[in-house]
């Protein structure tokens, strides 16, 4: 069976009509992973119970039991989502040997929908990075060109979908970690509106920015998966009660009559010429479908990177305080308690994580709090205002997802500032808490380019509509890498 290009929708249909069983499907993916992931290193660990879980669903199906919407569907999870009994690590040595003792809410929801959890995927350590090079366990490579990065921090999940190891995967996005690797690997990735998906059981990096979201080949699959994982959760006070969203009316999506905004501040220097051309081609495609395209201005987004790299380290430094080497994970004994803390943390965390803990602790310390943290919060609200203002007049904002295609392994790894700059187009959506999606819109030097759509808070539906329309008139999402 060639599972490489199957979409979630096709898989569900085939499972329902018993064209193949979930066990067939899971075995096909597992042997593909076995054969091809040695080089790519997108999977940290395959779930030992995957085949058994698939068989259980098959049995339930053949006995005529009522099944959930994802019955028998294989899915990968980024290594920062807790699955009871799994050794989740956030790709950090600090959590080596740790066993999760409860399920993240998304995991509970996937399980009750009948999904088969295939395993955990590689990521930048604690989701800090844009290339999946900072994982303690090894570097993930881009399936389109193995000498290049897959993007990050959810690089493993993006590669797993792109390389045909599963039809769907989950990632987390604090500043672009779903959308940027989706863009660099040629798949679709959605960062939902802050509050749409419960963060319970997601290892926290920056709690006011983090969101869990899906990767898939098609926008329709992303929308379908969202229906399972979204919604209010008593265990996450920031999650929001949602009215029923229906994607069934999107069968024949149109963009006729919509207004699309192109922010002039995003199209300045630093953007690759090919990326710009392909994004503008995609815009022209929407225009052909009847959308009105207008130039918009968002004057404060120029400060977004600076604001993000103050707020994110501040929140991360406090969230990572819990890794003390005593309660769980890596431990290194010192002469006294303080030395034990500092040895465990000093040896357990990698350089990028330590850099951010130091930056964050500094910016939060007495005397600097007002100068950095509070000021950054103020500018964050100005950025949010820019979004609120333009989204009164346009239905969606279109930009590139990443200023360039996938770069060479090692190229930016030693230079944090250059690495940070690769998030320039994605972090604004997290700061403004709006939904944002990346979808394939062409190739430059044989590498995928991503188009970013951003919309009104809780109006993911609009992004699905535009994205599904775009995928109905283009073929970019049907291209797969030769792994
Ligand atoms: N690359 C960004 C960072 O390093 C975003 C990470 C993320 O979204 N988790 O902070």
Write structural notes for this entry:
It is a single chain. By secondary structure, the protein is α/β, with parallel strands linked by helices. The protein has a domain at 3-256: Alpha-Beta Complex (Amidase signature (AS) enzymes), CATH 3.90.1300.10. Helices cover 37% and strands 13% of the residues. It has 15 helices and eleven strands. It has helices spanning 8-16, 22-40, 50-62, 105-112, 155-162, 179-185, 219-229, 273-288, 304-319, 337-348, 351-364, 369-390, 416-421, 427-432, 460-473; strands at 43-46, 74-78, 116-121, 168-173, 188-191, 211-216, 259-263, 292-296, 396-400, 436-444, 447-454. The protein has an eleven-stranded mixed β-sheet with strand order 1-3-2-4-6-5-10-11-9-7-8. β2, α4 and β3 (116-121) form a beta-alpha-beta unit. α2 (22-40) packs antiparallel against α3 (50-62). The radius of gyration is 21 Å and the shape is globular. The structure holds glutamine.
What order do the helices and strands come in, and which of them pair?
Blueprint: H1 8-16, H2 22-40, E1 43-46, H3 50-62, E2 74-78, H4 105-112, E3 116-121, H5 155-162, E4 168-173, H6 179-185, E5 188-191, E6 211-216, H7 219-229, E7 259-263, H8 273-288, E8 292-296, H9 304-319, H10 337-348, H11 351-364, H12 369-390, E9 396-400, H13 416-421, H14 427-432, E10 436-444, E11 447-454, H15 460-473
Parallel strand pairs: 2-3, 2-4, 7-8, 7-9
Antiparallel strand pairs: 1-3, 4-6, 5-6, 5-10, 9-11, 10-11
Helix pairs in contact: 2-3, 7-15, 9-11, 9-12
The structure holds glutamine (GLN).
């Amino acid at each position: 069976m060639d599972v490489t290009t199957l979409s979630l929708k096709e898989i569900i249909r085939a499972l329902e009509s018993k064209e193949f069983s979930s066990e067939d499907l899971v075995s096909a993916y597992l042997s593909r992973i076995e054969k091809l992931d040695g080089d790519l290193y997108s999977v940290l660990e395959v779930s030992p119970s995957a085949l058994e879980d698939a068989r259980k669903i098959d049995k339930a199906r053949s006995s005529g039991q009522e099944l959930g919407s994802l019955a028998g569907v294989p899915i990968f999870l980024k290594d920062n989502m807790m699955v009871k009994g799994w050794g989740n690590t956030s790709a950090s040595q600090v959590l080596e040997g740790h066993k999760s003792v409860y399920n993240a809410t998304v995991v509970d929801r996937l399980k009750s929908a009948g999904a088969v959890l295939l395993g955990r995927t590689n990521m930048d350590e604690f989701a800090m990075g844009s290339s999946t090079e900072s994982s303690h366990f090894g570097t993930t490579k881009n399936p389109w060109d193995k000498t290049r990065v897959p993007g990050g921090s959810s690089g493993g999940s993006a590669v797993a979908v792109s390389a045909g190891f599963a039809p769907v995967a989950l990632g987390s996005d604090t500043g672009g970690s779903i959308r940027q690797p989706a863009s660099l690997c040629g798949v679709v990735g959605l960062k939902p509106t802050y509050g749409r998906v419960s963060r319970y059981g997601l290892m926290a990096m920056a709690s006011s920015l983090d969101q869990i979201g899906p990767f898939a080949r098609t926008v329709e699959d992303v929308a379908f998966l969202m229906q399972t994982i979204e919604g209010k959760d008593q265990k996450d006070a920031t999650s929001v009660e949602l009215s029923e969203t229906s994607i069934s009316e999107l069968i024949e999506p149109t963009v006729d009559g919509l207004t699309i905004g192109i922010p002039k501040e995003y199209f300045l220097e630093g953007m690759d010429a090919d990326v710009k051309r392909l994004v503008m081609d995609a815009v022209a495609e929407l225009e052909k479908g009847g959308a009105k395209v207008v130039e918009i201005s968002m004057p404060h987004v120029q400060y977004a990177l600076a604001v993000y790299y103050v707020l994110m380290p501040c929140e991360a430094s406090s969230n990572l305080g819990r890794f003390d080497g005593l309660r769980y994970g890596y431990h290194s004994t010192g002469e006294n308690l303080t030395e034990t803390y500092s040895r465990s943390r000093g040896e357990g965390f990698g350089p990028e994580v330590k850099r951010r803990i130091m930056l964050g602790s500094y910016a939060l310390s007495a005397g600097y709090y007002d100068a950095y943290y509070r000021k950054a919060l103020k500018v964050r609200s100005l950025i949010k205002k820019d979004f609120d203002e333009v989204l009164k007049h346009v239905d969606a904002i279109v930009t590139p997802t990443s200023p360039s295609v996938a770069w060479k392994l090692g190229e930016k790894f030693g230079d944090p500032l250059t690495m940070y700059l690769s998030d320039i187009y994605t972090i604004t959506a997290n700061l403004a808490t709006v939904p944002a999606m990346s979808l394939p819109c062409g190739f430059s030097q044989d590498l995928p380019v991503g188009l970013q759509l951003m919309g009104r808070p809780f109006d993911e539906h609009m992004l699905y509509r535009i994205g599904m329309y775009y995928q109905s008139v283009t073929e970019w999402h049907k291209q797969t890498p030769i792994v």
